[in-house]
Amino acid sequence: MTGATEAFSQAVADAPGLALGRASGSCVVLQGTSAVLHYEPNQAEIARRRLSGLVAISSPDALRVLLDLPVNAPLPLSAIERAAPGSLSLLPKGAVRVDRGCVTRLAVAPIEARLAVVSARSWRVGLERAGRFAPFCSRAMLLPTLPRDLHMLRMEADFYGIGVIVDTDGEPCVVVPPAPFERRRFTAANWLLLEQAYQQITPLLAEA
Question: Partners of 103 in the beta sheet?
């Protein structure tokens, strides 16, 4: 990582009041923007993928098929083929197990996103960038200085549930805490973002 990226990640990690627990933070590019994504790895799934050779699943169609299958519950292969002919051919090796005429879904999301933090010089730009992560996790922006229209920033950020962190001279301060994320449903788009993040942080996980 570059020095600027390291400073960005460290400022977020050091900011009090975020309650990230054991979540790790990595710089990724998602939703067309750079962000520090704080996430919790699913160690069991990551280990299983390493053994099976399954990497990040990049196909939305494959993820939609997987979401229609219960986890670790065998289903008759014939029934699946009748309901969605050819659907299993979309799945990468290691995503399911086919045995004795049954299909069992093995794959689950390899990480859980907790918080995405975007960097911006303008809080209005920060709101737009952070807003791209609304369906996926809690959100926050990192600003270099307190803006003059701080009252307006507080109102807007609080309305959208976007946290505000100001990093002045290496002293991060949470001006507005991010709202807790409430997932209504887990979609293929949700899962795809986690796979895209996992693909970018896999080298870091391998070193851990």
Answer: 75, 98
